[in-house]
Design brief:
The protein has 159 residues and is an alpha+beta fold. Helix content is 42%, strand content 20%. Helix 2 packs antiparallel against helix 3. The termini are far apart.
Length: 159
């Protein structure tokens, strides 16, 4: 090996190797990196959810009779967030006085997409980007509806 040039050594490294073993190493490395990114993203989501629950843990948390976030709403938010694609930004998550939870994605120029989960299988949502606005309700089971994904993408890309 001592007689090899640096470029020749690079060709044998796991990143540039040509053999089957090198290919498996590259795949394993990509898998670990993807898993690590997903874990970091999920940790950020759970921190946001935990903050929302903590700020609204007792009746009247807003000083005006607000309900604590319901267990059903927490379950819905966790499931909803876990089914978002990995390339979707982490939303800001807030408790609402009704015991439901709001997820917000902010885009350029004041654009915003908001989704409210109450604990049933419905997602109430609205977005505003420039002069364009839209409101809707869609059903969430195990797939985040296209109407919601497209609305979030529209807002974060600034369309």
């Amino acid at each position: 090996m001592s007689h090899m040039l640096a470029g020749e050594w690079d060709e044998l490294s796991p990143d540039r190797g040509r053999g089957e073993e090198a290919r498996h190493i590259r795949i394993a490395r990509r898998t670990v990196c993807a898993h690590e990114a997903q874990t970091i993203r999920q940790s950020a989501i759970f921190r946001e959810i935990g903050s929302a629950i903590e700020e609204s843990s007792s009746p009247g948390w807003d000083g005006e009779g607000a309900l604590p976030v319901s267990r059903e709403a927490v379950r819905s938010v966790v499931n909803f967030c876990l089914f978002l694609s990995d390339d979707m930004p982490v939303p800001s998550i807030h408790a609402l006085p009704t015991g439901s939870v709001e997820l917000d994605w902010h885009g350029p120029g004041g654009a915003i997409f908001s989704a409210v989960l109450e604990g049933d299988d419905l997602v109430h949502f609205a977005w505003r980007s420039g002069v364009a606005k839209f409101r809707g309700v869609d059903r969430f089971t195990e797939i985040v509806p296209d109407s919601i994904v497209q609305g979030i993408e529209r807002v974060i890309r600034g369309f």
